[in-house]
Amino acid sequence: MTPSPTPPRLGGIIPPLVTPLRGRDELDHEGLGRLIEHVLAGGVNGLFILGTTGEAPSLSYRLRRELIDRVCEAVAGRVPVLVGITDTAFVESVGIAESARAAGADAVVLATPYYFPAGQTELIGYVQRICDALPLPLVLYNMPSLTKVWFEQTTLESLAPIPNIIGIKDSSGDLDYFGRLIALKQLRPDWSIMIGPEAMLADSLALGGDGGVAGGANLLPSLFVERFRACRAGDDAAGARLQQRILDLQRIYEIGKYASRFIKATKCALSLVGVCDDFMAEPFNRFLPPERRRVAEILRESFPELPVSE
């Protein structure tokens, strides 16, 4: 298949949207609409749906397609829409990509297949074959904590000649690795290299990164946009103040004891400010009242401008 003739140049702040739900297989349509307008009003540079923060692996294919349609319709071309297609099945990844193209999305995002860890030689062949089948430009997604496999440097060097690949999102949390990704721009100066862990945004930009896919931008989009702009402007005073606010937000991710606490905290915070429901996809549960109260306390302490209501 032939990709879009003008692949998007990605950069700035691209929130990995949560997926607002009202039930096991039911979108929170009103909440989704409010969430989209909320992040766009904050000045973000794109939206990434069906990623980790969007609970993609826990959603039915039917609901994924419904979400793609709804988001693309609501965004209406105002910013690029990126769609996660990571799956254990090759044909399902391609099928979601085809739905994304039909809905008007701009690019797709692919992590390494999970469950059976792929060897790097297998991974190279897999990406080459899937690129031949994709109808949209591709952003690679390095998420080793959940997929058990890294996109190693030599693998990316082998994949660099594929024109359909337009960048990488790295959520490893390893800045040394991120620095090596930046070196790949010698092979592909057109690649956009984005970081996932939001507290590392400034460090990644200093290394030559293009922006962040920050989960906290679901709640406070303008905070991350302003942090990005302060870095680009070399405004260290504003940058330090904004960085402290980002670190203050990190406190909500420390609530709870399971790996799902990051998504739970984000959805809980969004529900507290009236954006969307905090229903979680199976097998996860929303925060119980004690955890919910703690999130509310942190938001009131650090972000008094937010309309927090329990």
In words, what does this structure look like?
The protein is α/β, with parallel strands linked by helices. It has one domain: TIM Barrel (Alpha-Beta Barrel), CATH 3.20.20.70. Helices cover 44% and strands 12% of the residues. It is built from 12 helices and 10 strands. It has helices at residues 29-41, 61-75, 90-103, 120-133, 144-147, 153-159, 175-183, 201-207, 221-233, 236-250, 261-272, 289-302, and strands at residues 12-13, 21-23, 26-27, 47-49, 81-84, 107-111, 138-142, 165-170, 192-195, 211-212. Strands 1-10-9-8-7-6-5-4 form an 8-stranded parallel β-sheet, with helices on one face. Helix 3 (90-103) links the parallel strand 5 (81-84) and strand 6. It starts with 11 loop residues before the first strand and ends in an 8-residue tail after the last helix.
Key terms for this structure?
single chain, 310 residues, TIM Barrel, eight-stranded parallel sheet, 44% helix
Our count of domains comes out at 1
Here the CATH topology equals TIM Barrel
How many angstroms separate the termini?
49 Å
* Count of alpha and pi helical runs: 12
Q: Roughly what fraction of the amino acids lie in strands?
A: 5-15%
Order of helices and strands: EEEHEHEHEHEHHEHEHEHHHH
CATH architecture: Alpha-Beta Barrel
